[in-house]
Structures are given as C-alpha cells and as structure tokens.
Design goal:
Elements lengths: L2 H25 L4 H14 L4 H19 L5 H14 L3 H27 L13 H12 L4
Length: about 150
C-alpha cells in the first residue's frame, strides 16, 4: 500500500476511534455506524486470517455474553471485536491494555462518585464506565498499522 494511502487510513482510524471514545464519554453510546466504518478500515488494512477471525468471533461472543449480563455495552463488545481482529497477533496485548485503562477509568469514576457523596462535588454520580475510551486507547497501542 502506498505511504499516502496508509497515512490516510491512519488519520481515518484516529478520527473514528476519537469519535467513538467521545461519544461513549458523553452519551454512553458507541455509534454503530462508527463501528461499521472502523470495521471497513480495519478489514481493508488487515490481511485476512483464520486466526484473526477466530479471535474476533470469540471476543464478540464473550462480549455479547457480558452485554447480556449488563457488564459491558453492546457497542463496546463490537468495538473490541473489531480491534481484536485488527490487532492480529497482539490481541492479548489489546485485552491487557484495555483492562489496564479500564481499571484506571473505574478508579477515576469511583473517586468522582466519592467526591459527590462527600459533598466535594455538586455533579451527578457516574453510573457506568465509558469503556470505549479504554478500548480506543488500547487500539492506538496495538493496531498493527498504527
């Protein structure tokens, strides 16, 4: 792939990941159209492989199971599956970094809620963790073409 096309796909990826992270942060929703566009970009850049497809399927299945039990959003599950496909051999690093970033986000949400409960903040308590932020952060580190 020519360098200019490669750079363009990187820019598109940054924009899509930023869109999904900001949307989850503000609205607690990951837009399906953004995930679909991201899947098209990742699919165009990532060589097809049965291993990648298997990891994507397993991550999607486990993510949908987590969604069923209200542990993870459906958009987060789909986003993580696409990222796992694009991460290729680095899928375990993607999961680890996502968990690490998610843990930091969870602590930040807990601290925020503590400040609300103790009266240090007049804002509303946070009920859910915007996990797409953690997933997108991990994607920047592990997608093979970034």
């Amino acid at each position: 792939m020519a360098n200019s096309n490669y750079f363009l796909l990187q820019i598109i990826t940054v924009l899509l990941l930023s869109w999904m992270a900001l949307s989850d942060l503000q609205q607690r929703k990951v837009p399906n159209i953004a995930v679909i566009l991201f899947a098209v970009v990742v699919g165009a850049v990532t060589p097809f492989g049965q291993g990648n497809l298997l990891i994507c399927g397993v991550v999607l299945s486990l993510g949908m199971l987590a969604f069923h039990f209200r542990l993870l959003g459906a958009g987060d599950s789909k986003l993580l599956a696409v990222c796992a496909y694009g991460a290729g051999d680095q899928w375990a690093s993607l999961i680890f970094i996502t968990a690490l970033f998610g843990g930091v986000l969870s602590v930040m949400c807990w601290i925020h809620n503590w400040t609300v409960q103790t009266g240090f903040s007049s804002k509303r308590p946070v009920k859910t963790v915007p996990y797409a932020v953690a997933i997108c952060g991990a994607a920047f580190a592990t997608l093979h073409y970034m």
